[in-house]
Design goal:
- The complex is a heterodimer of chains A (321) and B (219).
- By secondary structure, chain A is an alpha/beta fold.
- Chain A is globular.
- Chain B has 219 residues and is an all-alpha fold.
- In chain B, 37% of the residues are buried.
- The chains are: A alpha/beta (321), B mainly alpha (219).
- The interface between A and B is large, with 44 and 31 residues.
Chain lengths: 321, 219
Amino acid sequence: MIVFDQVTKRYPDSTVDVVNQLSLTIPDGEICILVGPSGCGKTTTMKMINKLIPPSSGSILIDGQDIGAIDTIQLRLNIGYIIQDIGLFPHMTVAENIATVPVELGWKKDRISARVDELLDLVELEPKIYRHKKPRELSGGQRQRVGVARALAADPKIMLMDEPFGALDPITRAKLQDEFLNIQAKIKKTIVFVTHDIDEALKMGDRIAVLKAGRVVQYGTPMEILARPADPFVSELIGGRNSLKMMNLLSCGDVMHKVGVATDFAAAAAVSIHATAQDALAEMFRTGKSTVLVLDDAKNVQGLIRLESLLESVSDYGRNS
Amino acid sequence: MGLIDFFLSRWQDILELTLEHLLLVLVAMAISIVLGVTIGILITRSRALANLVLGLASIMMTIPSLALFSLLLPILGIGTAPAIVGLVAYTLLPIIRNVYVGITSIDPAIIEAARGMGLTDRKILLRIQIPLAIPASMIGIRTAVVMGIGIGAIASYIGAGGLGTYIFQGISRTNDNMVIIGAILISLIAILADKYLGKLQNRLVQAKPKTEGGKHDRI
């Protein structure tokens, strides 16, 4: 758990607090997104966790321990760090890049080598092919995968990610986001993730802290933020269509009505149980029908979604979340 | 006497002067490289210091080499020692400057990533900055060595020996053969030195051998 307690950052020669009396509790095993426009203090907030930027006042606790009392180098070696430009070391191979922190920690060669292969498998880069490549031989997406692998090398509990997918084209970006969510489902790190893109925040975040002028204006789950934006600033950041975006966060499994034995559904429209509620809505528009079937992986009917009940359940989620 | 006959009749002399020249430049360059690389690294810690040192070194280079050697005469006397001091003073700038530029032009994101991952300043220098500054530094060293070989000829003026001796003697005795042989050999040494340093540079910069996978790309 990471706790910010009344943290303020003001640079010398400045009259503005980049981060202003910020308090925030980030639970273990979750992705916490810091989102907001440029200059809102999100990156500064993140960089205070690994002491790249010292706070002017207030304290930051990791698992109850004030980071001021932890040796800076030890602290950083135990926190994975990924930045937008990735910062892969161009003179080192992929394997050497990934091995950076394990080497600092004095791991044995065999252990490092095994770990590198394991991580390359995890980020879906064939170790035999990619181990010995230099960063310049990789595409942007591949570099980002190596960046993720490098940050995970020593199995840190905490990872800091500063716009990690910012420089990628939309397709690669979406793919890497999905893959990263799959990886996170396995590794359950405590992740602080900075982005200016609210849609990325809604997709990736277990929790979202919306920052404005160095303060948290709203902190909640994506559903909460969409259902009840705290103020016009948050609404504007979301950019409207909140219900549609909420439907993007709900799976068909969440909103369907279960049905018993399938009987005469052959002619009806159907969606996968893993698809989003928005997909179900799109399918209704496509087929002109107000009911779609929900199928499991084996193509068995698990339930159905009606237009009226879909609208109802989305607004219910808004009320209850 | 023709150039070739002259060379054949004096080849032992010429060989000795060549070795003398090589030794002088070698010693001076060894000192210059060690000093230049160290200073170049140190001044990356402070911009003010960098400006001061680079400024001083530039001024040093603007002094004509003959004048510099003459200025050193009353202080260090004649012979090899003042010649080495002069050569080092002359060849420091390209080394310092290129090491400095090589280190300071590294993408800040790379340094920040290294720092954020928990590398100490010393480790960042050894594992990241120095290796990445090698290409630029090698260019400076090559320039310095070629300059040193040429200016080494002028060092003969203060009794440092070397191939410059032939050039100066040739001029005063109006012996073209001596001047030409001195000049050709100095050029030859400079060209060879540049060529082999270039090869060394490529070897230092060269990527490690690629493995089986080849170039095919995903995503």
